[in-house]
UniProtKB/TrEMBL annotation:
Domain Cupin type-2 positions: 62-131
CDD domains from the UniProt entry: cupin_CV2614-like
PANTHER family: CUPIN DOMAIN PROTEIN (AFU_ORTHOLOGUE AFUA_3G13620)
Segments forming a coiled coil: none
InterPro entries noted in UniProt: Cupin_2 (IPR013096), RmlC-like_jellyroll (IPR014710), RmlC_Cupin_sf (IPR011051)
Source organism of the structure: Halomonas icarae
Name of the molecule in the record: Cupin domain-containing protein
One Pfam family named in its UniProt record: Cupin_2
Signal peptide: 1-20
Record keywords, A-Z: Signal
Amino acid sequence: MKPLLALAPLLLFAAEGLMAEDSASTFGPEGLTITPILEATETITGQPIHFPQGNNQLVAVLAEIEPGGQVGRHLHPVPLFVYMLEGQLSIEIEGHGIKTFDAGQGFAEVINTWHNGRNPGDVPARLLIVFSGQQGTPNLIRP
């Protein structure tokens, strides 16, 4: 009986391995491609990214700016990520000039800095914006 008890952990380990292999073939990734977009510790102007503490929340929005349109002067008191889905966006950043982004690019937006985004192109600019903020704190402040 003792030799069988000694083998029990090995048998369990082997059975779990077989189950994991079966699960991987059924539920594992198939046809999956992962393309890195951004890994950043700083915003586009070199500000370190610090996340708020407390009742944190993520807010994701899709924004569309018509050709020749603009967002209007504003600032963000929280960190945010922007991914350009279509078109082009030029951001005039107080004290930092203009930075331009095209479809397929992602960036960490400036924090607590006045700026305005414009669409200089001839097609709509579509952006996915993900704010990392706190409940009760606005994601965008206008003058």
